[in-house]
Amino acid sequence: MNSNKNYYLLFSLVSLLLVLSACGASTYSFAGKKSPAATIIDSGELYSTYELTASERKNLITQGLKDEDIRKIEKYGTESNWPDGIATLDGRDAVRPEITKYNTYKIATLDGGNKWVLLIPAAKNKHMPENMKPKNDIFFFMGASGMKQ
Q1: Is 25 exposed, middle or buried (CB count within 10 Å of its CB: 0-12, 13-18, 19+)?
Q2: pLDDT in tens, 35-77
Q3: Which residues of the chain have pLDDT under 70?
Q4: What is the domain partition of the chain in residue ranges?
Q5: Residues with Cβ < 8 Å from 40, sequence gap 6 or more?
């Protein structure tokens, strides 16, 4: 009887760990900090050619990002470095509902929280259609009204 109790406890513990690990997508590590998951609800709020100002760069540094992180965000945060399916306005217009299916993580805010900087990790977006699947991590600048956390 005692061995059945131990088996049940072990089974319960393993089950709990599996459930918790499945829920582990609620944060993602970037620049040495955990970033919360975020959901795109309006892809029309996506900035495709966003250019950071000097004051915005300073703001990102105060939020814990380093210059190398910011350079990476700038490089991979514009349509010229996004997957082919979203690299043009016409392409994005054709796949607006699918854009909301990206797994994204809020890594910073701009403009008093009215704009969010999102990380779209390649490793967390293998489910996306081939023409939308990032080959490397990419970034989006989004109006906050198009997001949910």
Answers
A1: exposed
A2: 999 999 999 999 999 999 999 999 999 999 999 999 999 999 9
A3: 1-25
A4: 25-148
A5: 46, 99, 100, 102, 104, 118, 140, 142, 146, 147
d(CA 111, CA 145) in angstroms, rounded, equals: 13
Asked if 38 contacts 148 with a C-beta cutoff of 8 angstroms, the reply is yes
Per the listing, tokens 């349509």 go with 79
Angle, vertex CA 56, rays to CA 55 and CA 61, nearest 5: 95
Q: In the chain, what's the furthest Cα-to-Cα distance?
A: 69
Q: Indicate the pairing of strand 33-40 with strand 46-47.
A: unpaired
- Single-letter amino acid code for the residue at 54: A
Consecutive H or E run containing 75: helix 67-76
How many alpha carbons fall within 13 Å on the CB side of residue 121? 16
Q: What is the pTM of this model?
A: 0.82
Q: How far apart are CA 27 and CA 104, in angstroms?
A: 10
Q: Distance between alpha carbon 45 and the CA centroid of its chain, in Å?
A: 15
DSSP letter assigned to residue 67: H
- Whole-angstrom distance, CA of residue 94 vs CA of residue 149: 25
